[in-house]
Structures are given as structure tokens and as C-alpha cells.
């Protein structure tokens, strides 16, 4: 396991997750956190579909993006915020199951840029099936002194 | 201007857009359509933000993804559906304005794969500022005979 | 292990690799093949560097791209050729070692599109270090009847 | 036209290009430079092909990558070096012409990260045809004081 710079990373990342209003609206839940790793769950929602009745790729991407960003945040110092530089999502299969598990991991933690990946798996059937995968680079931004995360101010 | 294969492309794409429940939930509107080109508008919504108060990158990506897919659909035959193979979104600036314009274009139309791009611009200030850009590849899928788009069945 | 469609996949893929003149020029060797998996080796060459003296990212990418394409080819029918639709390469560390190992894998084999990944590791030190990673989509193209691969004609 | 930070950017970028041994080996020439923009030319070479006789995608990518990096370098201060964070190349058509023109542009210049694009066009026929396109992010790295570019030391 990677040694986190902030022993209180879990509380900090959970607070940051809670302050993302998009996660609630998109029915995305944080399940568990470890240094450099996060597990989340998405629920398929009737009002978040594309034209063929599958979960919209952008909604799935929102979950994958958050998984990458928060995985990077588990390894940062408390004064650092994360911003996605870019990400790529590859879609292997349309999402037709009710629940999707998303696992985000840091591939290479950096002082300025961290590289992350996130995978989406179908939940519900006998086997876990890989639905989509993100590869992303995340800017690690030093916040000015006196900075307080929105959710704690 | 590119010659569309389907003279009724506009009605077909508008119907497909209307059948994406995610577009309404994410506050994304279709403004105008031309062969190989689409213009859409996103409204920043308090319940779709990330932890720093900016529009969530995944929500913006949902708009860019739809812009790419529907741009590809303007050039397809009526019996063809589109599915994103993959996309990459690059984030140039955080979205702090109330409205975002999204323009999608087909770069190379193909029988099996079409390549598209979509750009997001801030609206509201004096100048249009480029906020983010997507590069995507879209599978052009021949639907079985007798297939009826969900929204018209 | 995935069951290959072509029991003679190894001879076919090795012949295809041998017919890539770029591999010899770029000092890239094929080490081993399994269904859905390939291992290759790149030698750092004084005439293939970038301005800081590291292996040029494009040269490394040529190895990663070939690893993805040939991994996809191990799982195809003999009448199918592969063409990269797109790839993304993420660079974690500059290449300063003399040798690089490249491992390509099929993540999702498809009839028309296969998704692959390839990783580059430094060789020579005590530990293997991940230098770069590619995520790619590969078009599986049915060749016309009577088609003979260049290298066997 | 964007104002460059370094009035001598052209000499600096040309020297950096000349110090990339890969460019000569891959038959890639620098044609012209403007702030935020570069034009290069690739010659198809019999020893840099893939298995179907087309220019290897990795070789084309080396040209696109250099075009992005050097375009970013035209806008940097003299003490800054560039390193690709990641790039994505989309392949629209195989390269069968003898010459390819590559045009690189900065989309968004940043202090730490610049976003660039590069396009490859076929040369030789009546019309310019877009063959491939790269989207990249480039790290702008402050070099330590006293640093001298390799090629001028």
C-alpha cells in the first residue's frame, strides 16, 4: 500500500466528495477509500439515459472522472486540490445493468500531475463485466495559504 | 456543406435528442443542426457541480459526447445508430459562467467509424472563451431491418 | 487464457511483425506471443532521441502501437487485418534506460473494434518501472477473399 | 498573432529541433515557425512502414508529437523545456502519399500545462487530405538556473 502524505486523507476526501453536488444528482455513491484507490457505485436512473435506453456515456464518465480525481486526492497533501487536465473514456459495452461499480486508482502520483485510471464494472449478474475504462491526468494544484475547502468553511 | 444521406436528418436527429432523458436532466438543449454540425447549450446547475463550485467535468463531457454523436447522426442513413467507441476531453479552463455553448462537428465521416470533435465555449462575457474540447470516435451501427427508434415506436 | 480463432496465430502474427519495416529501423523486437498478449523489447538508439536525450515519445509510441495491434491480431481470424483507429499514450517518466519492455494486451476483443492496452517498462535496474501506457482502439478489417498478406505473397 | 515571451523563439526552437536525433532518422523536417504554430514535413520511407505498406502510425505520431511540443516551445520563456504529458492520435486514413505535411498549434498556452493539436495532411495530390490528428497536453518545465540546452553547450 502507498503511504499517504495526509494521515487524515479519508475524512478529507469524503468531505470533498460530499461537496460535489453532481454526485448526488447523478446517483453516484462513495463506497470505500484506500491510499491511491477508491470504490464508488452508480445507479442507473431513468432520467439519465441516452437514446437507446442505456446509461448516458457522459454520466458514466462523471463517475469515472470523480473516481480518478478523488483517488489522486487520497495521496495529496491537505493544501492540494485536484483538477482534471484531460481524460479518455473507452466504452466496451453499453450499460444495461441497474448498478455499476467504479474503481479508481492512481497509476503514478506526481507533484504536479498524477496519472489515474478508473474502471466501470456491471453489478448484478454472476460475473463482473468490464463496461468502460478511463485514463486521465490530474493537475495537483497548491492552494493559497489560508485556503479552506468549500465544504468546511 | 456536406450532402446528408438522409434528407430528413433534422427531424430524425431532433427526435433522437428528445429521447435522451439525460439531456433534460443535465439542462442541455439542442439549438441548431446542419449536416455534420450541431450547436447545443448547457446551463450551469447548482446540483451538477464539482467540489470547487465549477460545472462537473463529467456533465460538460455529457454535452460534448452528445454533440459528437448527434453530429455523426446527421450524416448517417436512417437505419444507422451511433455509439461512442471512445472520447477524450481536454479541460482548458474551469466552467464558471452560467451558460456554455457546445459545437459538435464531424471531422471524417465513415461507414463504420466517424471521427468527431466538440468544443465548449463560455457564453455571457464579451468574448467567447474555449473551455474544453472533445475528440471522439463513433461507431456507425446498422440496425436490423424493421428497427424503429425508441422515440417513434 | 482466451481461445484464439486461428490455431496458427503465432506464425501469422510473427510473419506480420516481420513485414513491418519500421520495427527493425526502430530497434523493436518481438519476444513472445500468447492469445491476446504480446511481449516486445525496444533498444534505446542514439539516433532516435528527443532534445533532452531521452527516447523520443513517438518511437516509444510506435512500439506501444505495434504491441496493441499485434495483440489484437492474435485473436483474429486469418482473413482479418488490424488498423489503429486511435490511441492515447500517457508518459509517466522519461526513458533513460537502454532497454524497454513493452507488453500489449487485448482488453475487449470485438468483431469490428478491439480495445487494447500496452505498457512500457524500464529494463536494467533492480525494479521494473512503468514508463508509459497506451490505450487504443483497433479496427478489425475483413480482407477481400483471395487476399494474401504482403509478406507471404 | 500571439505575442511570444521570447523574441528569439525561432532560433531557440530551431536549435532544439536540430538536437532531436529522431527527427533526422524519421525523415522529418522543420519548415516554418510562428508564435504558437509550426509546419513540418515527413517523407515516407521504405524502412518505416507497417505491415500493409503504409507509414507506421508511430512514425507519423513522432512527427505530430514534435509538432505539438515545438509549437508549445515557441511561446515559452527561454528557461522552460517541454515534455509531453500525454497525447491521443486519431487515424482518419492510412498514409500512402510520399510526403505528409504536419501543422502543430497551441490551443491554450499555460504556465504549467499547454494544450496543443497537430494535423497531418497528405501532400502530392490535387487536394490536401487530412490523414490524422493529435490532441496533446505538454508540461512546461522550469529548468534550474544555469541550465544550458544540450545543443548549445
How does the SSE layout of this entry go?
The structure is a homotetramer of 153-residue chains.
Chain A lengths: L8 H10 L2 H5 L2 E7 L2 E7 L13 H18 L5 E12 L7 E10 L4 E11 L5 E14 L11
Helix pairs in contact in A: 1-3
Description:
The structure is a homotetramer of 153-residue chains. Chain A is built from three helices and six strands; from the N terminus they run ααββαββββ. Chain A is of the alpha+beta class. The first copy, chain A, has a six-stranded antiparallel sheet with strand order 1-2-4-5-6-3. Chain A starts with 8 loop residues before the first helix and ends in an 11-residue tail after the last strand. Helices cover 22% and strands 40% of the residues of chain A. Chain A is elongated, with a radius of gyration of 15 Å. In chain A, helix 1 (9-18) packs antiparallel against helix 3. At the A-B interface, helix 2, helix 3 and strand 3 of A face helix 2, helix 3 and strand 3 of B. Strand 3 of chain C pairs antiparallel with strand 3 of chain D.
